[in-house]
Here is the input.
Amino acid sequence: MNTATPSSSDVDFEQGSTPVSSASSKHLTVVGERAHQPQYFGQGCTSSQFLEAIRGVKVHRGGLAHVMPANRSFALDDFEFSFEWPTTCPPPHVFSSEEACDLMSAFGAFVTSGDSLTRHVVNALMIVLRDSPHGAIHNPNLFETCQGDAQFDDAGKSCRLWAVADSHLKSLPEPVCGGKVRFAHFEHPCPVDPTGFVPRYLSWFHQFPAEARALSPVFLNSFGLHCGMKPSISLLGVIKPLLQYASRTFPRPITLWGGVHAPGNNKPEQYVASQGRTPVERYNEKMEKLISELGPRGGGIMEGAMGFISWFGLTDGAKSYDGTHYAYQINMEKAHLLLNLLDILWGEAVQADGLWDVGVVCPGGRGNYQCGGEHYWEPTQA
Here is the structure.
């Protein structure tokens, strides 16, 4: 674990830059304070390098993602990665529920949009955040049935119908992470309403206090299988509207795109021509190129680029139960890799003077003179 908290005083600002200049565009991301030290940031791997390391992952033959033993443990403390990790970055961290809640609470929100592949990543994150082998489900009558792999089995419709898609879902016994985390999944197979996603997100986000809206939200989107593998649908349906919104709001959101993962060797024959290995690789290649062309030249996520997460190597050779979907192991690996990426991005935002440490002057929150209490003065019209 890294024990050195990044300090904004260590930041080297560009000569003559201003907070809104293109040269200092990375200074538009804002993150909140954390109780825990970073778990991965500071170990010598940047967010860009970490994304490249994910791209280079290979399924470990004989590992849990390749074999899927019938009697495996779904205890969170027993989870371990089953892939071969590139030597370019240190091995990723396995987050505890407490660490994950602390990390995700330091962002304004975590918002996902996509099809069942994205929902399964959300399921895994909910398992970690809620510290429960059935954490993706909110119906207590199904906790015994819907735990472990069953939460990712789309053939068993009963479990997926009760998936937790909102950290503040009213049917939960308590909000996820005690209400500190703001997390929502908007599921649709294909983004066919270009003007709908951002307003829908804003309608949901505005239920939260100003303290949350002062921090950068994180967006993870992924589409393809249900869109005929047409890059134009994803580009015009969600990517351009989201990047347009991100370019004109402060604090600037962090935007991520999840590539379509590898199909299983048991992909049904009737889908191979449209969703097999070759069309998936071709689609991912086109999407990554388009996303790169839309971002700042030579800039990374902190400069406003949309980060592309390649899940192909992570799943290429893993055991799929239907040729399209993967179960507990793969999706938990995705969830923990995402948490490691967020940990790096948090640290990079702090290094870019983006730590909103308002708790120093507002230790009790809003309510005193400095923080908009009863003596807070506002101009009035004559």
Summary: The chain has a mean pLDDT of 86.
